[in-house]
Structure formats: C-alpha cells, structure tokens
Write a structure and sequence with these properties.
The strands form 2 sheets. Strands 1-3-2-4 form a 4-stranded mixed sheet. It has a two-stranded antiparallel ribbon with strand order 5-6. By secondary structure, the chain is of the alpha+beta class. The chain is about 45% helix and about 15% strand. The N terminus is likely disordered. It has 7 helices and 6 strands.
Length: about 160
C-alpha cells in the first residue's frame, strides 16, 4: 500500500503524480513505507529527475474526465461544492469560475484565451484588458462590475 505525500517548493508550477521509491530528503517528506505516492508540486524540474514511465499528468487526467459526460458533471458539482463550502478561502475570479462549476481551461475556452492566462488573472499576476473583462463577464453571466470587484480581490485559492 502506498501513502500519499505532498511535496512543495517554489521553483515551478508543474504538478505530477506517481509511485516513486522514497528517496526524497526526509526533512521535506515523511513516509511510513519504503514506497510512497509522491505528488510533485514544485519540487523537481524535469531536468532534475526523470519522470517515471507510469506518470500521468493531472491536467491530462482532468481533460480526459471532462470528455466523459458523467465525470464532467461530477467535476462541475465538486467545483460548485468547493466554492460554496470554502467562501472565505476562495476569492475573486476563481470564486466566480468555481460557482459556475468550470475549470480554468473551460473558462479560457469560453473567453478565447489560454488556461495559463486565466490562472495568472486569478492570482493577480497580470493586468486585464477591458475586452477580456467583458468576455469574462459574458461567459460567467455576471455584470462587468462583478468582474472588476473579483479582479480587485485577487485571491484565487488561499
């Protein structure tokens, strides 16, 4: 049996998951077994450690699940539930998006932009054009003033 381990660092935003022998510095990760499921969040760059052959990218898994109507509906419901359950932790554009049950990719597709652009807008790392704000308002079904307030909140997930 494997134990999930969450690994964090500040170098990258790429996320992967895999079963991997527990050779990571024990001060960063702990495990009660010799093998652990490591969720890589900003810990390793691809040039540092080869990605295991059984690796599945989280974005690819979600994209695959979004193509199956029943799974897509469950993901949408989970996003809506998260937005309703965590209103103090989820703010700004992320809250508007999650209330609709959409992924960043879905919102990007609706607006005609990229998922990384939506991610940067949600965390406040990028200014927005008025035309993009209008597209966001239309896609999310909210007044442009609500988009303005959401972008001022600049929260994302805390």
């Amino acid at each position: 049996m494997t134990n999930p381990i969450r690994a964090r660092d500040v170098s990258s935003k790429h996320m992967t998951a895999s079963t991997f022998p527990n050779t990571v510095d024990e001060s960063t990760l702990t495990s009660s077994s010799a093998t652990a499921t490591v969720i890589w969040v900003d810990l390793f760059q691809p040039r540092d450690v080869p990605i295991p052959a059984d690796f599945e990218d989280l974005d690819e898994i979600i994209a695959r699940d979004e193509k199956v109507p029943a799974r897509r509906a469950k993901l949408q419901q989970a996003r809506k539930s998260l937005a309703a359950r965590e209103p103090g932790r989820i703010a700004g554009l992320a809250a508007l998006r999650l209330r609709k049950g959409w992924s960043q990719k879905r919102l990007a597709d609706e607006v005609g932009t990229s998922q990384p652009h939506i991610a940067r807008l949600e965390i406040g790392n990028e200014d927005i054009l008025m035309s993009t704000a209008r597209k966001l308002a239309e896609a999310l079904g909210v007044p442009i003033e609500e988009i303005d307030a959401a972008l001022r909140a600049r929260g994302g997930v805390k």
